[in-house]
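Structure ticket #2291
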Amino acid sequence: MQSSPAVIGVDSSTQSTKAVLVDAATGQVLATGRAAHTVSGEGGARETDPEQWWRALAGAVAQALEGFEARAVTGIAVAGQQHGLVVLDAAGRPLRPALLWNDTRSAPQAAALTGRLGAEGWLARTGSVPVASMTATTWQWLREHEPRTAEAAAAVRLPHDFLTERLGGTAATDPGDASGTCWYNTATGAYDPELLDLLGLDAARLPAVAPTGATRVGTLTTAAARELGLPEGVAVAAGTGDNMAAAVGLGLGAAGLLDHPVVSLGTSGTVFTATATRPATAALAGFAATDGTYLPLGCTLNCTLAVDRVAALLGLDREDAVPGGDTVLLPYLDGERTPDLPGATGLLTGLRHTTTPRQLLGAAYEGAAFTVLRALDALPSVAPSAPLRLIGGGARGRTWVETVRRLSGRPLVLPRATELVALGAAALAVGAATGDDPVAVATVWRTGEGETLAPVERDRAAWDRIAAVLPAVASLAGPPRGGATVGR
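Resolution: structure written out below.
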């Protein structure tokens, strides 16, 4: 039983929802609930019914509350997968399945939007250059391919916005997740009227931007409280995107650590750091963090899921791998975002008579890890010898850890906490309930601390071998297919 104040942090990711019940004072995870999602689509399409996310959230929270006093819960916050496009009718019901962050059908729209303002124009406003799956590009795809649905949309939301509104009844987002839309101006800290006009999008359809993800934007509604088995007085935070929540969970931000690089290995691979300097480079997404700092980030589409697929094709366990030798395997099974090659497919080269299945799997690990680690060089203010904080599902895999260690040549910090996105959301929930700084809360919880692995000699031969193949991937991928128009 739980009598001291507790909070709930929700991680609504691509494939599942995790809910953690956390002691608000110590950060101890008291219980965890989990429920799966279904992703559908072929030929670049990746979609999920948003109602699945709500049902999964309710189920995960119910699991986490089993055996605990629900009246001890004082706050709840959602961290969600970034970029997804949710369009709702006037009653708040989805008009169609959400287009997800790894839906690459909007590549032509991304190219057309970039052409309208130029890369420098987008960087000056949003800190990012549009690529397929950023919300502005998927909205433009919807306008062109399903104009009736776009016209009928009374509300346009991100995944975490949709869930937050269901919890508290208030249409709200935060600067962090909003900065991934490409219609939020990270220089002004507000939606950009000229970009909205370019996209034919009325600001009245969008949620208000709360000052931070910890801002209390409402109280659990009667309907939500009944469905989740919680009291109605629970504070609802604005929440944020998954990467921003992970940064909070690690104690990165103005009240904690700055310029400490993080590598996250999940369905996608990301590399990011919290910085006081607003980033503006085409090599990275120049996101805002949830606490007023910034979160420059490189994101790849193909990481643990792609490598697991290669293991399945070879009939191997995911850990049954050795270094790839002469073989290079770039597992771009869903196209790729970094580098920006939405039409790319997987590429295998360097086969010999002596190549083994275990080497092929090792080459897939190397190709995926290389693609993530390349973005490290673009992060501002990061020292070449700075340790990497390694998080995500891959951080619990021996082969992932050793591959990143070998290709980076850096020390690795493996945080003891495993659900850092959900823990970051829990710290945001504390902020909503008490007014405390969530980064400072997570620092007290010490959720970003863990085992440190000493650096090993960097495998330059493997790195250079993979780098030499990248031009071939670009030439084989070709330009995005299809046309696009931008403007009303």
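Closing remark: The two ends are 58 Å apart (CA to CA).
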